[in-house]
Write the structure tokens for this entry.
Amino acid sequence: MPTATEIMRNCVSIALVFASFTLLAQPDWRTPFELDSTYSAHYYEAIDYFEQLDSAYAEVQLLTYGTTDVGLPLHLAVLNTDGVFDPVKIRESGKGVLLVMNGIHPGESCGVDASMMWLRDLLQKETNRHLLDSVVVAVIPFYNVGGALERSCCYRANQNGPRQQGFRGNGRNLDLNRDGAKADSRNMRAFTTLYHQWRPHFFIDTHTSNGADYQHVMTLIGTQQDKLHPLLGDYLYDSLWPNLFHQMAAAGWPMTPYVMPVDRTPDKGLRAFLETPRYSTGYTALFNTIGFVTEAHMFKPFHQRVDATYAFLQVALTALHRDREQVVAWQQEADSAVAVQEQFALQWASDTTKWEKVFFRGFADTQVTSQVSGHLRLQYDRAQPWSDSIRWYNRYRVTDAVAAPVAYILPQAWQRAVALLQANQIDMVPLTDTMRLPVEVYYVEDVETIDFPWEGHYFHREVKVRKDTQRLLFQPGDWYVPVNQPGNRYIVEMLEPTAADSWFRWNFFDAILMQKEYFSGYVFDEVAAGLLDKDPGLRQALEEAKAVDSSLADQHYRQLDFVYKRSPYYEPSHNRYPVGRLLENVTLPLNIPAD
């Protein structure tokens, strides 16, 4: 029979064995970056990490949306201390939603590693728990999955680490931060579903900068004030913006607005970035979400960029926690106000008459002789730091605007436009009968198109149109798109051809620019002569045109073409933008029979 001492010794041994098993069972929550500060987590490592958080914590769910262009889903890690992951119920609860997107440019990966640590710390550090009482945090680990899988040491030639970087192009070689309006990628279409389900109040897209050299580790782009509803725009720049800068400075990361110099170097002043709907925050601004793009400075050590990004995520969460009640209410008010908006801006330009002063920490610049070309080149001298207040041109003025119609009539033939309107939860009603409707239409009079494909398109840089009013025939299944709804900024900026990132500019409707019917000169010559005899005004127009253009006077076919394009034989749909603008209220279902 064992003695009491032997029994005690055995109990201690058993306890030590159980303790060792318990210690072994504890997961190591350190991220790959924390184990090696020169390394950024691979796509599979990051997804695995969020899956472990999902398994270990009831407050976290790792969701998937659609399929990206490389066949893998778009992941979303959601943290809600209520354990509720239905976005409809969350919005009904009045909680704020903070959405973070990482890896839209996978070589700029500081947000990937920062988000992994940040989500873990929100769960594990008691000092953070109160921030989650009123806010739900959602993180896209990698948006550009294809680019994240394509890693190299050398994709970011100007960037200081990490050791392996992802590629800017996605599985279709698209820059996804130029895809917001056109939605060529399956990534963007998956994000569209995700975004409208969650309708965040704050949206953060994490990046690493290119460009000038300066002392700041973190720079920031905010949704352009003049593009937001005044309730949100005034809050952003009068209250939120200075608070974020103050809190980042207090955390040891003094920020500057994104460095886009008005001249060669930052000391001459900075100009605010204008994010049109092709960009992530330009797209989300159409639906009254306050957006930020963090741009950690490329020359700073990778660990500093990650830590600064982590700090910004934390101060943004703190701000939304503090202001959640007002921000939620203001977004709802903005939705209601925009739904009855009548005038819409289509183009913007920097307002150089307005600026404010910002404190900037830069480096002196000089000209040195290039060892490659022998020519002078710019060089920043880090041995000569400087700090001073400089001008920040942060306001934009409207250069083109439009009065919205009651509704747009979109023929069903243009399925790509139809599908994107539906994906963005735009209310639309199909016509039930064949009918002629009195609509205002545009004719494209001139287009200036880039010479080389950009992001898979020959983008139309300049578009000139004229208006006409016609009674056009529409078919059952064509779409009546009322403008009086919360998504009307999206409707207008996509369907008005002269808008900055309209679908017309992205070639959705290019088929209208090609003439389909022509004439044979020897046949039409006699017809043209008859038309000129019957219409003295047409003959006078031809003579005046020849007087101005000597080459027209010398070319027989061009004169026939001049007459043809002013005759009943010329197709009315050539260069006619196919989306009609209905200017009068109608009662649905429409009952205007075809003639």
User: Anything to note?
Assistant: The chain has three domains: 32-339+355-393, 404-515, 521-564. Residues 12-24 have pLDDT under 50 and may be disordered. The two ends are 110 Å apart (CA to CA).
